[in-house]
Amino acid sequence: MLNAIHHVALICTDYDRSRRFYVELLGLDLIREVYREERQSWKADLRIGSAQLELFSFPAPVMRPSHPEATGLRHLAFAVANLDPVIMRLEAAGVAVEPVRIDPYTNQRFTFFSDPDGLPLELYEAP
């Protein structure tokens, strides 16, 4: 029935800041970008592997609770071949990264950080 995840959609508070974060810092490829006048909303389609991340802006989005953890999307995880260079790049850009942990079931390394709006993101080392 289901084949794969096609896209994940995010709403941000500052479109330019979030676009720079996901495209320039994290290195996602910009597929297309449109301004939807009727909604006063930017939308960018970003490629990550075979999936997409849709980045939306709206005039006054409501913040969702994240800490303590709330029902709904817990975090968005990105696979990387090696955590260390990605962590160094994030920290050099002023992004706080949690200490690396080891998944007790897979023995793989992972860590968490947040996007500009506080969305919890994970880096999962999958060589």
TrEMBL record:
Gene3D superfamilies: 2,3-Dihydroxybiphenyl 1,2-Dioxygenase, domain 1 (3.10.180.10)
Keyword annotations of the record: Metal-binding
Listed InterPro entries: Fosfomycin_Res_Enzymes, Glyas_Bleomycin-R_OHBP_Dase, Glyas_Fos-R_dOase_dom, VOC_core, YwkD-like_dom
UniProt domain VOC: residue ranges: 4-126
Pfam families given in the database record: Glyoxalase
UniProt key word Metal-binding: yes
Any one GO molecular-function label of the UniProt entry: metal ion binding
Protein name: VOC domain-containing protein
Organism listed in the record: Mesorhizobium kowhaii
Origin organism lineage: Bacteria, Pseudomonadati, Pseudomonadota, Alphaproteobacteria, Hyphomicrobiales
